[in-house]
Write a structure and sequence with these properties.
- The protein is α/β, with parallel strands linked by helices and 444 residues long.
- The protein has 16 helices and 16 strands.
- The chain is globular.
- 42% of the residues lie in helices and 15% in strands.
- The structure holds pyridoxal-5'-phosphate (PLP).
- Pyridoxal-5'-phosphate (PLP) binds at residues 67, 122-124, 127, 150-152, 208, 212-213, 241, 243-244, 268.
Length: 444
């Protein structure tokens, strides 16, 4: 048996016992497909700051940070206090309440394209709403998306997410997807412009300003600019999926960072302070179609306002605390951006030193390692990740070995939070050095 696997099995006997139970009650033993990794995931029972602990008592510097929702770290006191107070006042009312108004006002004050907000509970709902709104507003039906773009399990966007990008993403998808959703290459200005110009009945274009699950790959500004200009020319809507980049690249998200204003944006993750949330935001004119009030509305509305728990008091309280804190501590972004740059540089350098070609992508606080099939291969889109890297075998090995060294990653990387310290950085760089040495030695 491989020594890293042996070490993992030795460290995680309680997790293994839970996994054996979990397998028969949860498909794959997990509640989200990507949380499984071979031979079985460790099961977590607490988190604080930059760290999590598993049921065997192992401690990890965490770079997955609750699917990147926890930019303030685990259990940040401002969020915990707000949630505690809210628990006393009420868990769930299913009624309008002041905090949702205040959080919406805060979003309007920070996110450039937000003139109105509709809250929901997940990012997938937010992208579903954004697509429906684009179709309802324009009266058209075709949506264009980037290859490798992951917008949650929103049915209408489950197209060309995983390489080689020509197979159905799931059983059970409706056949209209093939006609109504088309794709272009990420960072391919010419291809995207051509796709937009050629598209008939184009309602909108949706794109992640930094391709997240597709490889932590930042868009070139010119690419986003081209999408902005071409969609405007066709009177179609530009939608930024800012579920990862919102409140992460800056408090105003990628649209503030790149200085490009979309028509609509989908938000989630950080916006909930660690509690479930989603939101679609955009121009007053388009969002007004969600207004249920007023005469003649029947048949003239876009239905984007359901959800038993939409705007639920606990998520709103946690989100308010987190976003207020971020708006008042903007210098935190510079710090985690510098740390991200350091991790990206050192990660590729240390693997190169040990004879393995690794490129590290990302932007500001985000980073992701790619094990290249050939030295010097560039990683500018999801196609490059699929065809130019050993994205499966090597990444799994990288993850397991880093876990054995007390560092938790996802997809070959993750993101820094404001709770990460110099001590975490030191431990991470030492772990990377050891993992690179072991993986390099094994290859020889
Ligand atoms: C860019 C992007 N969009 C949408 C989603 C879906 O969000 P949720 O998991 O909250 O449904 C995700 C989730 O990881 C995401 O990364």
């Amino acid at each position: 048996m491989d020594e890293s696997l042996k070490k993992y099995l030795q460290r995680t006997s309680k997790s293994r016992a839970i996994y054996e139970r979990a397998e028969s009650v949860l498909p794959g033993g997990v509640s989200h497909g990507i949380r499984f990794f071979p031979p079985y995931p460790f099961y977590v029972n607490s988190g604080k700051g930059s760290r999590i602990w598993d049921v065997d008592g192992n401690e990890y510097v965490d770079y997955w940070m609750g699917h990147l929702a926890l930019i303030l770290g685990h259990n940040h006191p401002v969020v915990v206090d707000a949630v505690r107070q809210q628990l006393e006042d009420g868990v769930h009312w299913g009624a309008a309440h002041p905090d949702e108004v205040e959080l919406a006002e805060l979003i309007l004050g920070t996110v450039p394209c937000a003139e109105a907000v509709r809250f929901c509970n997940t990012g997938a709902e937010a992208t579903m709403y954004a697509v429906r709104l684009a179709r309802g507003y324009t009266g058209r039906s075709v949506i264009l998306k980037a290859e490798g773009g992951w917008h949650g399990f929103c049915t209408d966007l489950l197209v060309a997410v995983h390489g080689p990008f020509d197979r159905p993403e799931s059983l059970g998808l409706p056949s209209y997807l093939g006609k109504e959703v088309a794709t272009f290459g990420f960072n391919d200005v010419e291809g995207a412009v051509e796709a937009i110009r050629k598209a008939r009945d184009l309602a909108g274009v949706i794109v992640e300003p930094v391709l997240g699950a597709g490889g932590s790959i930042p868009a070139d500004k010119e690419f986003l600019q081209a999408l902005r200009e071409e969609t405007a020319r066709k009177d179609a809507l530009l939608i930024f999926d800012e579920i990862i980049t919102g409140f992460r690249l800056s408090v105003g998200g990628a649209q503030e960072y790149f200085g490009i204003r979309p028509d609509l944006a989908a938000l989630g993750k950080i916006l909930g302070g660690g509690l479930p949330v989603g939101a679609v935001v955009g121009s007053q004119e388009s969002m007004e179609l969600a207004n249920p009030v007023g005469p003649g509305r029947e048949g003239q509305r876009v239905s984007i306002g359901g959800g038993t728990f939409s705007g639920n008091p606990i998520s709103m309280a946690a989100g308010l605390a987190a976003v207020r804190y971020l708006a008042g501590n903007k210098e935190g972004y510079e710090r985690i951006g510098r740390m991200g740059e350091r991790v990206r540089k050192e990660l590729s350098a240390v693997f190169t030193d040990h004879g393995l070609a690794v490129a590290c992508t990302g932007l500001e606080s985000m980073f992701q390692a790619h094990f290249l099939r050939e030295e010097g291969a560039s990683i500018r889109n999801a196609r490059d990740v699929h065809f130019n890297t050993d994205h499966r075998r090597r990444k799994e090995e990288f993850k397991l070995r880093l876990a054995n060294e007390g560092v938790y990653t996802m997809h070959g990387g993750g993101a820094l939070s404001m709770a990460h310290t110099e001590e975490d950085m030191k431990q991470t760089l030492e772990a990377l050095e050891k993992v690179a040495r072991d993986m390099g030695r094994k290859r020889r």
